[in-house]
Amino acid sequence: MKKLLFVIALMTFTVFAADAQQRKGRKEMSPDKMAERITDKMTEELDLDEAQQKEVYELNLKSSEERMEAREKAKEEQEANREQMKADQEAQEKALQEILTPEQLEKWKEYQKESMDNRRGRRGRGPGRPGGEK
Predict the structure, then answer these.
(1) Which residues have C-beta within 8 Å of that of residue 14, sequence separation ≥ 6?
(2) Where is the signal peptide (predicted)?
């Protein structure tokens, strides 16, 4: 049971790390720019008059700022979760040191390393990706 929980925690951490790497490449747009872009598109598509444009811009700006705040809050929570998972992992490792013999502990660490290497080797492969199925 402990092994299963550890593997689940490790996999969760890996997913968070992969997601963070994907987001790193994107440029963050300011709430002003987002609101302007959306308002321009709505003006073009809906033929808004000046009064409507102003109201729609204010609404879009407010929504963009709220989304940005929510993203920042989620980012902070994600960091806190990551730190908690790391602390849990360290506590589990310490507990394992008390339970397992030094040989068993070494064997377990080697198994974890191989497992991680195997997962890293599979990253990026899948449908539509180089090395993956088509």
Answers:
(1) 119
(2) 1-17
What's 26's DSSP letter? S
The CA distance from 54 to 50, in Å, is: 6
Domain extent, residue 72, equals 29-103
Are the CB atoms for 82 and 9 separated by under 8 Å?
no
Of 112, 115, 75, nearest in space to 92 by CA = 112
pLDDT confidence of residue 2? 66
Residue pLDDT, tens place only, 80-111:
999 999 999 999 999 999 999 999 999 999 99
Structural domains in the chain (count): 1
Q: Among 6, 18, 2, which Cα is nearest to 89's?
A: 6
Q: Which two tokens stand for residue 123?
A: 């990253």
pTM of the model: 0.48
* Cα dihedral across residues 20, 21, 23, 28: positive or negative: positive
Query: Could you write out the DSSP letters of every residue in 45-108?
Result: HHT--HHHHHHHHHHHHHHHHHHHHHHHHHHHHHHHHHHHHHHHHHHHHHHHHHHS-HHHHHHH
